[in-house]
Structure formats: structure tokens, C-alpha cells
Amino acid sequence: MSRPTVLGVNNYHYLRGGSERVFLDLGRLLAARGHRVVHLSTAHPRNEPPPGPAVFVPPNDLSRPGPLDLVRFHYSRRAARAVEGLLARERIQLAHLHIYYGQLTPAILAPLTRAGVPIVQTLHEYKLLCPVHNLVSRGRPCEACAGRHFWRALPRRCNRGSLARTAMSVSEAYLARALGVDSRVARFVAVSEFLRAKVLQHGFAPERVVTVPNFIDAAALVPASGPGEHVLFAGRLEDYKGVFTLLEAAAEARALPVLFAGDGPARSELERRVARLGLAHVRVLGFQDSAALAALVRASRCVVVPSCWHETFGLSALEALAQGRAVIASRIGALPELVQDGENGFLVPSGDAGALAERLRWMAAHPSEAADLGACGRAGALERYSPEEHYTRLAAVYREVG
Questions:
Q1: How many Å separate Cα 372 from the centre of its chain?
Q2: Which residues have a Cβ under 8 Å from the Cβ of 85 and sit 6 or more positions away?
Q3: What is the pLDDT of residues 195-246, one digit of tens each?
Q4: Is 0.85 surpassed by the pTM of this model?
Q5: Domain that holds residue 200
Q6: Residue 15 CB: number of other CB atoms within 10 A?
Q7: Whether residues 334 and 191 fall in one domain
Q8: 240 located within any domain
Q9: Shared-domain flag, residues 390 and 333
Q10: For residue 98, which of 10, 55, 92, 302 is within the disulfide window of CB 3.0 to 4.6 Å?
Q11: pLDDT tens digits for 46-70?
């Protein structure tokens, strides 16, 4: 049976975070299932090989943007031209978008609509509801904009405490809505039931939003063995990711080393606090590539996801479970969909360093039981989050829109 040619769209074609991993893995999965896969992304020296034809447009410089970068942050004519070129050369039958705002921008939507190409978008964040994409203000969950009143972010300075940055995010959110980021998409794919419920809560029609959880090929991963030696945080170092909650808990529970693998805006402050508190058992490792990170997970006693925001999925938790390691996670967002308290790990109240420290002490005192939790987690990952299960559900979405 002929399978549609899919245009995959994402700002970045190398591993920056969980959404890039999902995008790249999905491209390979679709190609393996017989789809012709075409990718549109931005150029970068670290770009991974695409699964088929690809176009890489020059990126916007958002670290030190000039006037033209600010314009292109809202609307990238060169990205629109790239789509037009692809449509002229390839028989694109479906577009699957991931994160495209700020670089490729909603400028890509109109050419697809004119060509009659149905659009599916995987929701990795809360872009449709929040101008800074994460429902976070001043480090804590916030829904003041209610999915449409984006101007309310201005007095809160939600983008890194900067009025100028927040104003840029707000103006982009309003323009994106005008350009059809919600109306031109045939189906939104939520990566968790929590995310779907949040989108529906703010006015989206239920028939347009379907849940298809992220996947992982657990069978291809080497499972952990032995009790593990350390506690691991793996992810972006941000305040709302709960890194300071974990640091506070680590100050109370010192039986196991605590490692932070990742980078981000909170790194320097995290390192300062580690030094000031004299926590010799805590180390900030910085960014780790995929192989190094997998080795750190396998060598851990448990992985901690101490988020203070509404996680849309929790890919770091799934990756740990798939390798047979228990997870301690905040009881917030979609994390309870992955972590079942007492079965494959533990759930603790978000921001509660005392409760987290108690579970860290339990992990230190019960190595064999911790390993059992991890084994249960791997079994669940093999059953519920396999590539086969993901493709079956996603293919149904493709049939509906195509």
C-alpha cells in the first residue's frame, strides 16, 4: 500500500532537547515504515543526516538579534520560499510540523494551505496558549493569558524578566494567531493526555486534538544492571525545571552523589550554590551527548525529574525507565502518566525539597528495591511507548486528515 510523502518541519536538525529527539526519531521511523520523508529545518554544523531530501535555511541569530532578525523572528520569507520550492519538486502529501516558530515561523503555513497539503502538528509545548510557550511566569506555573490574552505577559515580564523580550514574544504570538497557527492545522497531536486536556480547556475542539505519546525503542537500549551509584538529573538547567529544589534536597540527603547533566540559564547560579554550600557530593557536568548521557542513566540509582512546571510529557523520565532505572518525579503536568508511585518510581509534591530528600534517602537505603522499580519501568516502556504503538496511532491520524 502506498504511504504518503511526509514533509517534516522543525527549527533544528540536531539534538538541542527532547523535541528535536522526537522529530529526528520520527523521521527515521517514518522512513523505515515506507514513507518518503522530506525535512525542512535550519542550517547548523551539528545537523544530523536527514532520512531523505532536505532543505536547510539560514537561521536567525536570536542571541544578538539585529533588526532583520527581529523581523524574521515573526515572519521568515526565506522559509516560505523553501516550502514553495519543496512543493514544486516533491509530491508532498502531508506536512507534519513540530516546533517552527521563531526560526521557520508561520510563514510556512500559507504555501502548504494553497497547495492543499493537510497539516498535522505535534504539540511539544504550550505555544498555542502562552507567548513564552511554557505556562511559566517568574519560575512558577501561570495561565494568566488564558490562551488568548497574550498582552497579560507584559507586566509580568514572562520572557526572562525582560520587558523587551516579552514584548517580542507577545507580538509574535498575536501575529502567529493571525497567520493561522491554530486554524490552518487539521490535527494537533498532543504528547500526553494532560497536554490535550489543557489545550481543550482553552477552547480547542476535541476532534482536532488527539493524544499520541512520544515513543522510545527500549528494545534497542542496553538495560541497566546492578544497583547504580548516583542520583541523576538530565535536562535543561532552568529554575522551573526544579534544579534548585533538587539541590536543596541533595543538601539534606548526602548518601549518594547527585549529578546534573545538562546546560542552561541556571547553570552558573547552580554551580555557585553548590560551592557556597560545600556540597562535595554534587557535580554539575554540563551538556552530555547521547552516548554519555545513556551511560550516566545506566550507572544511576535513579533519575530525578523535579519539575515546577506543567511538563507536557517528560522524555528524560521515559528514557530512564526504558533503560531500567527508577524515576522520582514531581506530581505535576504529564509526569504522573509516566511515573506510577511505588511501581516504577515515586511521585513527590512539586517544589517540596523535604519530600524529595526523603525519597533520595530511601533510594540510598534500598538498592535492590530501586532496581526492581526500574525493571518494572522498562517493562512498561516496552509495552506502552514502543515505535510500533506510536506509528499505529500516528498513521491513523494521517489517514484521517489525508
A1: 27
A2: 55
A3: 999 999 999 999 999 999 999 999 999 999 999 999 999 999 999 999 999 9
A4: yes
A5: 6-128+181-215+386-401
A6: 16
A7: no
A8: yes
A9: no
A10: 10
A11: 999 999 999 999 998 877 777 888 8
